[in-house]
Amino acid sequence: MSVIIAPSLLSADFLELGTELERLNQVDDLWLHLDVMDGHFVPNLTFGAPVLAKLKGASKHKLDAHFMVTNPEAYADSFKDLGLHNFTFHWEAVTHQDRMIALLKERYPSVGISLNPATPLAAVPNYIWGKVDLVLLMSVNPGFGGQKFIPAIVDKVIELDQIRHKHNLGFSIQVDGGVTDENAGYLIQAGANNLVAGSYVFSAPNKDYQSRINKIR
Ligand code: DX5
Ligand code: ZN
């Protein structure tokens, strides 16, 4: 599996979003990671459908939306015409996850579930793994960019990779939070094949995002 890097727009300069997107358009094979926060599931508020609607035409990359919201069910329909490639919801936020996955499958090419650092893999029953395209393991407590990576997540990636092999499945393992060139190698070795990186990419000297992405690769 090749490794996808997904810069998180949360760390971009919102005053020049169009220019930031053009900079990322210079780099190939990325996903654009979009953190939708509602101020309830996490103590922060970001952007919603009106902003995302503008991205469809401005970014050449696949749009990867990560919903850190209390009721992602309410977003399944209202975001469906925004050209999202992937819709990831938090396992902890939903009571009827199986139904939610089925609902999303009808509307989005790719469906992901996300687990907070404190949520064990055992919280997800085995029959679910074959129904998702992506599993996002949070490596910080969600809500903010620029937080410190939690090293214990590497073992969780290994455990999830074992589950993937055991059931002969092809879902992507995405890691989100505090990813840098220093931990990316460990994560990829552990089995991750999709790495979200916000502050590390966007704090590149001279806004040379390509160089930071190359370093992760
Ligand atoms: C955190 C978000 C992340 C965040 C990552 O709640 O889900 O996507 O933007 O930012 P960094 O890479 O700075 O930790
Ligand atoms: Zn995210």
Annotation keywords:
single chain; 217 residues; alpha/beta; TIM Barrel; 8-stranded parallel β-sheet; 8 strands; 33% helix; globular; binds D-xylitol-5-phosphate; binds zinc ion
Could you explain the architecture of this structure?
By secondary structure, the chain is an alpha/beta fold. Helix 4 links the parallel strand 4 and strand 5 (110-115). Helices cover 33% and strands 21% of the residues. The protein has one domain: TIM Barrel. It binds D-xylitol-5-phosphate and zinc ion. D-xylitol-5-phosphate is lined by residues 8, 10-11, 33, 35, 66, 140, 142-147, 176-179, 196-200.
Name every ligand kind in the structure: D-xylitol-5-phosphate, zinc ion
CATH architecture: Alpha-Beta Barrel
* Shape field: globular
State the major sheet. Answer: 8 strands, parallel
Number of domains: 1
The stretches of 5 or more residues where confidence is low (pLDDT under 50) are none
Please state how the strands of the largest beta sheet are arranged side by side.
1-8-7-6-5-4-3-2
Amount of helix: 25-40%
**Oligomerization state:** single chain
Overall CATH class? Alpha Beta
SSE order: EHEHEHEHEHEHEHEHH
Mean pLDDT across all amino acids:
98
How far is the N terminus from the C terminus? 13 Å
CATH topology: TIM Barrel
Q: CATH superfamily, called what?
A: Aldolase class I
Q: What's the Cα radius of gyration?
A: 16 Å
Count the beta strands.
8
> Which structural class should the secondary elements be placed in?
alpha/beta
